[in-house]
Amino acid sequence: MAFSGEELSNKQVILRDYVTGFPQESDMYVITGLPGLSAYAGFYEVSSPKKGDRVFISAASGAVGHLVGQFAKLMGCYVVGSAGSKEKVDLLKNKLGFDEAFNYKEEHNLDAALKRENARCCSSQHESPWPHCCCGMISQYNLDQPEGVRNLMSIVYKRVHFEGFSVYDFYHLYPKFLDVVLPYIRGGKITYIEDIVEGLEKGPGAIIGLFKGRNVGKQVVVVAHE
C-alpha cells in the first residue's frame, strides 16, 4: 500500500561514488531514503537550528523523528522527545542519546510537560511554541472529522513561526543530504531503527499497528527475499 502523487518504483538508484563504506548494505536504502531525507530537510533546511538550541521532537521514535533527534544531538542541541510507551522512552534516552524523553500518554497536561522540559521545538510532527515545522500528522489521517484549530491568535501573541513542508520539495538537495549523512553512517554516529515483519499476510496488521503507534522506527513488511 502506498499513498503518492508520484510514480512508484521498487528500485532505488544512487550514484556509485556515494554508496561505499556502509556498515551494512541495508543501511544505504533505509537511511538514504525518504525518512532520512525528510529528517534532513525538516531539521537542517526548514528549522535552521544552531548549536545549543533546545529541540523537542514529537513521534520521536518514528521513522523520521528518531533521525531528527540524532541530527540535533550531533549539532550540539539539547534534545527532548515524546513517545507513546515506556519502552520507546527508554530507547530514546538509552540508545539514541536524547537528553530527556517522556510518554505523552501518561501526561495529564501536555502544555505543562513541555514547559517542564523547557524545550524549543522542531520535529517530525516537528511540534513547539517556537520554530514549528510539520511534515506529517498521523494522528489525523484516519479521523472522519480532522481536529479543528481553535487558538490561531496564539500565532500572533506568541510570535509563532509555523511551516509545513513536503520532502518532495527537497529532492534537488539529495546530493547535499548524502554529503552530510554518509560520514555519520560510516562513523557509526547514527543508529537507524526498523520494525520488520515477514510475509505479505502480515501487512494489514503492520499498517494497523503503524496507525496505533505500535511500531518503533520505520515499519517494514518484507514480502520476499531476493
Q: Please, could you describe this protein's structure?
A:
This protein has 226 residues and is α/β, with parallel strands linked by helices. The protein folds into two domains: 21-192, 3-Layer(aba) Sandwich (Rossmann fold); 193-226, no CATH class. Helices cover 33% and strands 14% of the residues. The chain is built from eight helices and seven strands, in the order ααβαβαβαβαβαβαβ. It has helices at 25-31, 34-46, 65-75, 86-94, 110-117, 153-157, 174-186, 203-211; strands spanning 54-57, 78-83, 100-103, 131-134, 161-164, 194-198, 218-222. The protein has a three-stranded parallel sheet, with helices on both faces. Strands 4-5 form a two-stranded parallel ribbon. It is globular. The two termini are 20 Å apart. Residues 1-5 and 119-129 have low confidence and may be disordered. Pfam families: ADH_zinc_N. Residues 63-116 form the Alcohol dehydrogenase-like C-terminal domain. One of its GO terms (molecular function) is 2-alkenal reductase [NAD(P)H] activity.
Strand order of the largest sheet: 1-2-3
Beta-strand residue percentage: 5-15%
pLDDT averaged residue by residue: 81
Domain count: the total is 2
The major β-sheet equals: 3 strands, parallel
Organism: Hevea brasiliensis
Domain Alcohol dehydrogenase-like C-terminal: 63-116
Protein name: Alcohol dehydrogenase-like C-terminal domain-containing protein
GO molecular function, one term: 2-alkenal reductase [NAD(P)H] activity
